[in-house]
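To assess whether ligand presence alters the predicted conformation, the chain was also submitted together with coenzyme A. Input:
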Amino acid sequence: MDPDIIQRFLESVGQKADVDLYLKLFRSQRKESFAIIVADAQIVRAALDPFHFDLRILAGLGLYPVVLVGLLDARDADKQSQRIWEWLLEDEVPARVIGSGTDLPQEIQTAVHQTFDENTIPIVSLDAAKELAIDDRFRLLRTLAASLETRKIIFLSTSSGIEREGAPPISLVNLSADYDRLLATSDLPRRHASLLRHVKALLEALPQRMSVAVVNPLHLLRELFTVNGAGTLIRKGSHFEKHDGLGAVDRARLTTLLESAFGRSLVPGAMEDGGLVVAQSEHVYLEENYLGAALLASTAIAPYLGKFAVDRQAQGDGIGGEIWAMLTRDFPVFFWRARPSNPICSWYAKQCDGLARFPDWHVYWRGLPPEKIPAAIAYCLALPQSFQD
Ligand SMILES: CC(C)(COP(=O)(O)OP(=O)(O)OC[C@H]1O[C@@H](n2cnc3c(N)ncnc32)[C@H](O)[C@@H]1OP(=O)(O)O)[C@@H](O)C(=O)NCCC(=O)NCCS
């Protein structure tokens, strides 16, 4: 497929900047680590057309996922793998079917690795593992993901993600915060409850940073190439530190995080004592790997949220939402500002109790008594910029 057509198609899926970012990110990783896509009989029967289109586009972009067939039910996995292969063959997308054996021995892992040298999609059939319990087939998936250092596992689903009865699909499951609550209620379909249990075990067992998505093949490319995603993203959950001041914080790493998030350099001296960022860091929330942070200053009006940032490559993965949940729990009153062009403004509008729009800044507040609003606005409009233009 013509690369220009592919690029244009992707831009119709999401914003150009996001698409380019993810493309760059995926291409910078080792080829074999990109993704494992789990497709079962239902998908091959009902959604092979969109799935095969997804694979064509990905291969056209030089991205070769592993397709794993038969994880939940391995009966006829060879036949389904063959069908996927035939559809790809018709469009000249290089692919090869590889049988897993009962325990994915080293020589089969090596065969999977080799397909990437040949720019070929490996279709791994679990047919030979059909007598195994589902837990054991998940063990094979774990072996495969460990061997390839996979960064993303995608479960294709005929639903639009993990769903509860009568409720919209869940866009993010943060296992450390949501798992017990979700499984305690009976409104998750059994197959989704079982999937969550297996995914939790998988994420806990694998050392690499990895995310899992449950998505309809119709939305797979949107899931891969947009910040907002599509379907359900499942994450292990992050760990956060809280600090008062920057005494125990690595300022160089914090600078890297802020500059990556905002895509601009801090003004000179901002991270030195008395500098703008340091003055805003009386209360600090920090993801343990410096992937996200919120910085607050005490002011005579109320706490001011001076920085809220997630590393560019980790945006859309839920870290910001986790920080926000802690922040709003700890601080019932605070205010902040954002550039009107910032895409996050629409989300802020839902999070705030009130906002005021000015040409250069939107000012937001939560819990602020009405008499303090003018002072909060004046504070935000007068504050110098922390980033260079
Ligand atoms: C703003 C920011 C901190 C959000 O962090 P994040 O980890 O990407 O956000 P999450 O994935 O946790 O999403 C949190 C919510 O924001 C929404 N969101 C995230 N990015 C968005 C975007 N680009 N456009 C619209 N909404 C967005 C998500 O849909 C989600 O909403 P939901 O809870 O209703 O589903 C991060 O995108 C960032 O660092 N941006 C650049 C720096 C910046 O602009 N900071 C704010 C300046 S005031």
